Amino acid sequence: MISADTWRHEVAREVCAAGADLLNDTWGGWDRRLAGVAAEHGAGLVCAHAGGLAPRTRPFRVAYDDVLADVLHRTLAQASRAARIGVDPSRILIDPAHDFGKNTWHSLEVTRRLDEMVATGWPVLVSLSNKDFIGETLGVPPEGRLTGTLAATAICAWQGARVFRVHQVKETREVLATVSAIRGEVPPARAVRGLA
Amino acid sequence: MIIAAALCPSPPLLVRELTGADPVVADLRDACAAAVAALVAARPDVIVIVGPGPDTTEWPADGRLNIAAFGGRPAQPAGGAPLPKPVPLAVGLGGYLLDQAAYTGPRRLHSVSEDDQPADCLRLGKEIGDTAGRTGLLVMADGSARRGPRAPGHYDERAEAFDAGVERALRAGDLRRLAAIDPVLARELLATGRPAWQVLAGAIRGTKLRKDVMYTGDPFGVMYVVRFFYVLSELRDRR
Q1: Which are the contacts of A10, defined by CB distance < 8 A and separation ≥ 6?
Q2: All structural domains of chain A with their residue ranges
Q3: Which chain B residues in 170-199 lie under 8 Å from chain A, judged by CB atoms?
Q4: Cα-flanking dihedrals φ and ψ of residue B128, to 5°?
Q5: Do A8 and A33 form a contact (C-beta atoms < 8 A)?
Q6: For residue B226, which of A96, A189, B31, B139 is within the disulfide window of CB 3.0 to 4.6 Å?
Q7: pTM, entire model
Q8: Which CATH class is domain A3-182?
């Protein structure tokens, strides 16, 4: 499975031709032709929330009456439109896009209320690695954000996030295995303690 | 008649709770508090807040900033009273500063649109300035948000000269020069304060001023200036 990060339909067309399976559009469907490319090539699509911000711009005094309501409104609109124009619904994911069009308080609230996204039934993707909201929460530079990233990962996994876009694969895998075991969804790898 | 004016920037981080455990900009908050305290101490009959917003309009005097929209705790009015009407960020922060200064006198809240031309802004300023009685003006306005690679609007090499021009006009107390700021350039440089500066220019044009410099800086790539102007004499012949 190959995922390509892009918001441009021209790039999407090239990467799909080269074998990409998933288009990760973090800029919230800014390029209206991107979903059509996913449909054309049978690729999956990530429908993310950037608060209406233009690609590659930074949040400047962003405000929301209810940040999660805006996340739901924008990601669900993109997801239903993508399905309508032919993207396989089983290949559509929604992503709150932490940091994108959000200040740290907004990203923390989205994390805290992720279950509301999960409840829509669309599979939820999160991308948390080394993000600024972790850095600001802990007061640490990018290279010091692994612990915070993993804590947020566990919270999202517990609430039902299904896909994780990560920088630190092994550590994330261990967090997810632990969360799944706590939830009772998978057994421990090997259990003998107190059982002998 | 404008008797005094305070000029403050309008970043959400002026609200103490929004920067978390670290005060981050204690010096900027102190400067704003000092400017507003000086404005209140001038004993105006009314304080008029002017800040950029989506439309040019007057807001109810009991309007307040919706801090929750920026991630803060929602306001909890005493005794189950209705929530105050939310107003645009800059106007709301002006009200927040007045509340912090424990000012309870009359206030008026004006937002002014980025789409308004300099002449419109000057006219609004003149209207405010021509009102009878002793009026204090609280202008909420920021310079360019494109000062450096980490700035909200990324770096634009024109930002420094633009802000320096504004700063010189403020330092000289020659507020008429603010009237000449190009709205197109200001918009390109994300200098959101432009219409509010021009309201200031229209309101106390042609007067002798005492000028207090309280803060000049751009810790996050956005130009913040805090000033207090005390009107020493009106030169009405220039009006």
Answers
A1: none
A2: 3-182
A3: 190
A4: -65, -40
A5: no
A6: B31
A7: 0.91
A8: alpha beta
